[in-house]
Amino acid sequence: MTREITSLLSVEDEVLEVVASYLDQRDQAATIRVCWRLHNPSARQLYRHLVVPRHKASNLFSTLTGSKYDYGIHVRTIRYTPVSDLDVRFAHALLCGAIPRIPNLYGLNVHVPQYLAPFLVPILGKGSTVFSPPNLSRCLPALTDLRVHGDIRLLGLVQDCPITTLSITRAMKQSDFDYLIDILEKKGSKNLMIKNLTIALHYSVGLQIATALSRIAITFSILRHLTLRLPATNALDISRLFAETQLFPLLQSLVINDWPGVRPVFPQGQGRTRVLDVQHGHIVQSSSFRPQLNRMSFGNIHWSREVPSNIWVMKEEIHQPNGLTEQLISDVHDNPMMWGDIIYKLPNTI
Fold this sequence. Notes:
- The protein has two domains: 12-47, no CATH class; 48-316.
- It is built from 15 helices and 14 strands.
- It has helices at residues 2-10, 13-21, 25-34, 39-46, 57-66, 85-88, 90-98, 117-120, 136-139, 174-184, 203-206, 209-219, 235-244, 272-289, 325-334, and strands spanning 49-51, 77-80, 107-111, 145-149, 165-172, 196-201, 225-229, 233-234, 253-256, 264-265, 295-298, 301-304, 313-316, 342-343.
- It has an eleven-stranded mixed sheet with strand order 1-2-3-4-5-6-7-9-11-12-13. It has a three-stranded parallel sheet with strand order 8-14-10.
- Strand 12 and strand 13 (313-316) form a beta hairpin.
- The protein is elongated.
- This is F-box domain-containing protein.
């Protein structure tokens, strides 16, 4: 036994880190409790990417905020989905208690189902202590990826963080959309950080899609990738808008409704080939304003090119999002009306 302990003590930290990475989470947790030599390597692996367990948010956040070992410094990403009204209360612990202890966090995914939304509102009220936390821009200097499915006011807690990827997947009504634009304009200036944006718009906002896109383009001036989720939309209206304006000059990709089940609808009598030829013309013209644009997708209709070539190829296929299928399924169940058809309808005159 003495020789085994001596051998373990002599192993380099880098080797122990590799050993810990091969352990599953249960074994990593066990080694933290019983083997001090593997404590730090296992802690770094166990807490690096956290998916908060169902009904165990309290235990996890208490560990992050109260442990003498300062486990929070190892955390890089957190995915948190409350499952009960009591569990929602731990959003307070996440946003106010744990945040000062996780300075290296770069990815935060908070998903509050619609049926739990009423329990989140009091927590986010102006009189709540949530709105008087420490300076979060100092506490989360590494936060670049924020994904929120819930009350739009959650953004108020991290508005000064260096976020480059932002995803808001709860359908926004006009007041929510106004809040998003106002809080990210940063006192009237254009937002120069966010390059990847995913947002869901309520039907009432989607009806004024040209106005919404114009406001987004003014606020997010260096946007590279834009994904919009709309209840129902005419794909030709959007492609024509991009052909007729110079919005988003740095854009590389535009995706409208990224759920794999969204299929194109071609009104009877207009002809599928004719309609797609019209959109092809829109897209060629759009790329003349946007030299880096290489993808435009409308449901299962995907247009792509190899930059700098101007030869656009159309494919109709089910797109499988990278690593977010489970998240998309949850979003669909929470907002079933948000996933309407992509309509290809020509105007009365072209």
